[in-house]
Amino acid sequence: MSTAIQVENSTRVVSDRYAASVNSEWVRLLDLLQMNVRYERCVGTELFTADGRRILDFLSGYCVHNVGHNHPDVVRALHSELDRSGPAMIQTHVSDLAGELAEKLCKGAGGRLRKVFFPSSGSEGVEAAIKFARAHTRRDGILSAEHAFHGLTCGALSLMSDKFWSEGFGPLLPETAAVPFDDLQALELKLKTKQFAAFIVEPIQSEAGVCVPHSDYLRTAESLCRRYGTLFVLDEVQTGMYRTGKFLAAHHFGVEPDMVILAKAMSGGLVPCGAVLMSKDVCDSVYSSLPRAFVHTSTFSENSLSMRAALATLEVLESEHLGDRSTEAGHYLQSRLSEALSSYEMVKEVRGVGLLMGIEFQAPRQLRLRIPFEAFGAIHAGMFGQILVMRLFRDAGFLTQVCGNNFMVLKVAPPLVVTDAQLDEFVAAIGNVVELANSPGSFSSEALGLGRRAFRG
Ligand SMILES: Cc1ncc(COP(=O)(O)O)c(C=O)c1O
């Protein structure tokens, strides 16, 4: 049997087993998009597949792999933590690493952030922030921004206005409301009611389409929150850990939040870890007496592998100056992309900060392009974006995705260790893919192929 057939067979065995016992629709979707490959080795920005392809990761697991895949220092730190047979999950001890990590995170974040709770995911961090804000303010309401993404547990989901995520899972938390992002008037109208414990917002909305607010939005939002007694909480699950060039995206806007939620990139993409950074006052409101010393906790909180991986990840981010690299590479990529794509009317804007970037597409005006664009958009709003993603993957070897709450924006977020040569490769690839999308025949045949595969499945 040829190697290619062996690889295909083994991919099928893995997929069939997964489909039978985990989630068959996920396998169907990846098959449909021709993205169901087996990754064998992942290093830095490169992913090597069982069938001998090299894929460049320009998604980073939605901003998980800031230090690149399997960074040797983080891998080494995890090995050494396992080798020392230290205390793990004892539950009734003081973790020897959590204090050190909390100290470093608070030093990096600055402002009023002095204390940390360690969840194991972004959603769990959002849940904690909701509870802590209520405990501190004795108010019930939680305010968020429209089109936000905060996670899929019930509390976090209650802060997401896009109904796709919550349909069929209600009822969700009462007393929640959403205001348009970057709209101070709407925010003040809600805050004035003095019913809200917290305004939880992403400083740059990632899944909404990499939306960067006006420069004074967050600063004014913070002062409005203070005026009306609402905590100002930043969800930096995607934007934190130098993704946008600074340790927190908050640092671009000169704000001092009462709480910050981190996760994703915190632990090198190898073990689950999150952090809720908060002011001492907020912390004291939760852990307010001896009997309440453990009133909010979780089994995997402060586990030694997560703490060790996060300490090693911070060290890498700082010693390799990956914040500066993100800024520099972001400027380079943005100017190269603008240069390569500005002549296409279907490209509306290239925007972002550091290496959190989005390319926004729009319906073309020319009739010959507009007709297929709208016809396939009517079948599924995500069709256009998925054809771009599929072509980038299949024809050019780039892993990307469109934003979860805005299918017209292609997210571009490679690991911060990406090289200029890899950025150049991406610019050439997206140029080719957009050029093909600009030819109605090629777009239609791709869309029909996708439709046929979906129908057959
Ligand atoms: C901004 C933001 N907040 C929270 C979350 C939820 O994080 P997790 O998937 O780790 O629960 C996500 C996940 O994508 C996110 O992008």
How would you portray this structure in words?
- With 457 residues, the chain is of the alpha/beta class.
- The chain is built from 16 helices and 15 strands.
- It has helices spanning 3-32, 60-63, 72-83, 98-109, 122-137, 154-157, 184-191, 217-227, 250-253, 280-286, 304-319, 322-341, 367-379, 383-396, 420-437, 440-456, and strands spanning 39-43, 46-49, 54-57, 115-117, 141-145, 176-179, 196-201, 231-235, 259-262, 275-278, 347-353, 356-361, 398-399, 401-403, 406-412.
- The strands form 3 sheets. It has a 7-stranded mixed sheet with strand order 4-10-9-8-7-5-6, sandwiched between helices. Strands 1-2-3-13 form a 4-stranded mixed sheet. Strands 11-12-15-14 form a 4-stranded antiparallel sheet, covered by helices on one side.
- Strand 14 (401-403) and strand 15 (406-412) form a beta hairpin.
- Helix 4 runs parallel beside helix 11, helix 12 (322-341) packs parallel to helix 15 and helix 13 (367-379) runs parallel beside helix 16 (440-456).
- The longest helix is centred in the first third of the chain and has 30 residues, at 3-32.
- The protein starts with a helix and ends with a helix.
- The mean pLDDT is 95.
- The site of pyridoxal-5'-phosphate has 15 residues, from helix 5.
Annotation keywords:
alpha/beta; 4-stranded mixed β-sheet; globular; binds pyridoxal-5'-phosphate
Radius of gyration: 23 Å
Proportion of residues in extended strands: 15-25%
| Biggest sheet: strand arrangement | 4-10-9-8-7-5-6
Shape: globular
Structure summary:
This protein has 16 helices and 15 strands. By secondary structure, the protein is an alpha/beta fold.
